[in-house]
Amino acid sequence: MPKSFNQQIIEEFRAGGGKVGGPFEGGDLLLLTTTGAKSGEPHTVPLGYVRDGGLHLVVASNLGAPRHPAWYHNLLAHPVVRVEVGTEAYEAIAVPAEGARRDELFERVVRAAPGYGDYQSRTTRTLPVVVLERPDHGAGETPGEVRTLADKFLEIHTWLRGQLRHIRDEADAHLAARAAHQGPGEPPPPGLGLQIRQHCLAFCEGLTHHHTGEDDHVFPALATRHPQLREPLDRLRDQHRTLARLKERLLALLADIATADPVRFRAELDRISEELTRHLDDEEKWLLPALAQIPFPPTPPAQEAG
Q1: pTM, whole model, 2 decimals?
Q2: DSSP character for 62?
Q3: Which residues belong to any copy of the Hemerythrin-like domain (predicted)?
Q4: Which of 7, 69, 83, 231 could form a cystine bridge with 3, CB 3.0-4.6 A?
Q5: Same domain (yes/no): 154, 272
């Protein structure tokens, strides 16, 4: 089967360290890998981008077509994406800009790449400008070198704590802005922003992935190697179930951000923050000594001589 045009560009990009020829030669091009909204499978597309400081911006132009491209629907469902620029690759959270910020960023994009203005003129839909945000660990925390499974756990825990702090800060800013636009005697306007939604979805997906890996692989292995940890492991599993229920309550509020109650959302954040803090502290206290004995990445088994 002949390769698609996109696949040819992707292969040329990776083989040439981010450089391609033909109509894209000399242009700013990146590869964006999203997770399919329906399939759950990875999908990679080459996209033009514009720099905004240290961030990369991509526009869901679809060449001015009336519908958003598939990759945009994917990142709305699964905000964590993989970005390849030149020889660099990193994981990002994809956040569509909103309101005045979207308009400001789109103006910057059009100044750098006027073709996007032409695409906007072809359609009545507002072309989304997506900011590809690098992971933010918060409070100046950065993960150290990962040599053992304990190091990897601390890296993941740092990310989870940082994301939760970031979401709480965004929710507080949203509540303050909401109060500022509330007229005398008026009820506060409902709704949450896309930025809060995307970061919260990324946090929830990360938490689910981490706990699934623990329940399916890490905890059973530790229980076998360290029988004295079986009771603490049972307690940690109970905490996983509690956190899963709290996470589902957050996700239910995100199902329709236009009508979501920001005050209730902030209260649910406090509940999951308190439970997660206790859980991560317990996990580190009980498991890190055993996890520090396990190299990461795992050492491949030695092959037998033929």
Answers
A1: 0.89
A2: G
A3: 150-291
A4: 7
A5: yes
In a domain, 140, yes or no: no
Q: What CATH code is carried by the domain that includes residue 30?
A: 2.30.110.10
Residues 197 and 250 in one domain: yes
CA 14 to chain centre: 23
Whether the Cβ atoms of residue 301 and residue 295 lie closer than 8 Å to each other: no
Indicate whether 160 belongs to any domain. Answer: yes
Task: Flag whether 201 is in a domain.
Answer: yes
Residue 156's domain comprises: 149-291
Please give the helix or strand (H or E) that residue 291 lies within, else none.
helix 262-291
Q: Can you tell me which residue has the tokens 């894209």?
A: 24
Judge whether 306 lies within some domain. no
Q: What b/e sequence results for 143-176 when a residue is b if at least 16 CB atoms lie within 10 Å of its CB, and e otherwise?
A: beeeebbbbbbbbbbbbbbbbbbbbbebbeebee
Per-residue pLDDT of the chain (306 residues; tens, 9 = 90+): 456 888 999 999 999 999 898 878 888 999 999 999 999 999 999 999 999 988 999 999 999 999 999 999 999 999 999 999 999 999 999 999 999 999 999 999 999 999 999 999 999 999 999 999 997 644 445 557 899 999 999 999 999 999 999 999 999 998 888 877 766 666 666 789 999 999 999 999 999 999 999 999 999 999 999 999 999 999 999 999 999 999 999 999 999 999 999 999 999 999 999 999 999 999 999 999 999 999 998 776 655 444
